[in-house]
Structures are given as C-alpha cells and as structure tokens.
Amino acid sequence: DGPQVLVSDIRMPGGSGLELLEKVKARLPGLPVIIMTAFSDLDSAVSAFQGGAFEYLPKPFDVPKAVELIRRAVEESQREEVADSLEALMAERRKDGIWGPPDGMASHSIASARLIQQRATLTAAEGGWRIFVVGRAERLVPQESSQEAANALLKLLEEPPPRSLFMLTTAEPGLVLPTIRSRAVPLRLPRLDDETVRAFLAEHRADLATDSVVRAARGSIGAALASGDDRSAKAREAAKEFLAAVSDGPARLSARSLRQGVSQARGEFTELLDAVALRLAALARRELETGQGGSTAEARLAGVAKVLLAREQAQGNVNPQLLLANLGADLAELGAV
Length: 337
Known about the structure:
By secondary structure, this protein is mainly alpha-helical.
C-alpha cells in the first residue's frame, strides 16, 4: 500500500518542500500533503496552497493539533481512495448495465460512510439537492469487523444534512433492518405490467424476453433478470435443497451442513442465506395473500429474522457448517419449513 499522507518541511537540504509537493502531486494527485515551516510568511503559504497542499502548518505548532490535522488528512486520503475505487467499479458495471446483482462479498468501510457524509454536506453554492440512491437496501447489514461504518451510516440516515435525500430501494422491505426501516418513510410502488417488463428485456436481455420468464417475474424486472443469472439460480436451488433438508430431519440437515465448504467463498455462502430468506418470505407472502397464512406464515417470517441474524454472523469468522446447522435447527423448531 502507498502512503496516506505526506508531511514535509518547506526548507530541506537539496531542495524545497514546494518542489517535492509539485512532484508528489504529479505522481499521486490524491495524496494529502502537509507543508510545515518555521519561516511563516504569506508568500510561502499561498505557494503551498496553489501547489495543492492539504494544509500549511507554521512552527512552532501544538502537537495535539498537528496530530489532529494529520488524522483529518488520513481520512481525506481514505475518502479519495474509496471514491476512485467506487468510480472504477461503477464504470465496470455500466458496461453491462448496473441492474446486475451485486457481489456477494460487497461491503463498505468507514471510509465509504465518510465519503457519503462529505458528499451529503456540500453547500448549496456547490450544488442543489444531493440525492443518494441505495439499491438492494436489504443487504445493508452491519459487519462485525466494521461496526463503526454501520453506526456512521445510520446516524447519517437519522440526521441527514439539509437538502439531502436518501432513497433506499428494495423488492423485499421486510428484510431491511428494523433500525433502517424506523428511519425511513415507506413508499410502495406498484409492480410493472408484463408488457413493460417484456419491452425492457427485449432491449437489454433478449434471451429472457419469453412468456414464461415474464409471467414468473410478476411485474419485477429485477426478478426477470435474476432468472437468467447463473449465480442467482444456483443460490435459489441451494436454498430449496437446504430447506428440504431441514424438513427431512436432523440427519439430512447434518449431512447438508457438512457439505458446506469451510473454505468456500463467503460471497457464495451469503448468497445462499439471502436466497433462503427470500424463499421463506415469498412462501409467507403467498400464504397470506391466499388466506392460508396463520401460524405457518408467522413461523416463516420469524424464520426470516433467524436467517438475517445468521447472515450478519456470516460476516465474521464463523464456521459456515456450524452456522448452517444451527440455522436449520432454529427453522425446524419454529416450524418455518
């Protein structure tokens, strides 16, 4: 990894800090540079800022204030790094359409939360309303290794800066964390008609523009696209298999859990848990819509909560086999399958 901040004196043997600043900005334009000097004057300060210095630090300086300045510079460096990374990621996704499924291991650090916070607090002189669209909001689950990021984002949602609007989209609002739902105003959009879904598929995924896919999508373009995604299809089949194993009893559940690879990519395991939650939610919704809900539908919804808890635990250093076995036992006890 490269440096996150550079602190340089303005006068050094063999060259000046301003010359170093020019060279650094040519090679690493996003690297914050702090210029310090005992010869504080207006000309050198102006030259430093014109050269792109993050801050100008005259001597003598208070050490705690200098440490705080360096901390802010490091945060700025991390935000710039995240911004560049996200820009490259979105450029890659736009090649094939950004409606594709996210990476199962996709996560955001505290630097991402700080970047959003910075963009949200831009003044009106730098722009009008700032609108942030967060897709697949049901995937916003705190990670054991980065609770700080989750707390920062929740606080931003709870107290957004003036003229900032956050739009969270999801096809499964029941799977969104209660702490997020309590901070949001729900707006339910009706499903699209079949012809609209078919027209979109015909333009972007002609191979999926069939009667069977359109009917199964039930007005959801996302569902139609997921039907043609091999990874999503694999996760759905794995979810059906797992729930069948739970229904068949402890012996088959144990066998299925032991087949879950310990070293398997956690993204694939997370996709399995997502598919289990979606299947239980879909079954509960169908039962409620047909008037056959009752205790079974309630048990399935309670099972969804268990799956979400398991998904959160999966982000940590937990054995997937043990996690899957415990989840299956919980679902069986609830009568969710």
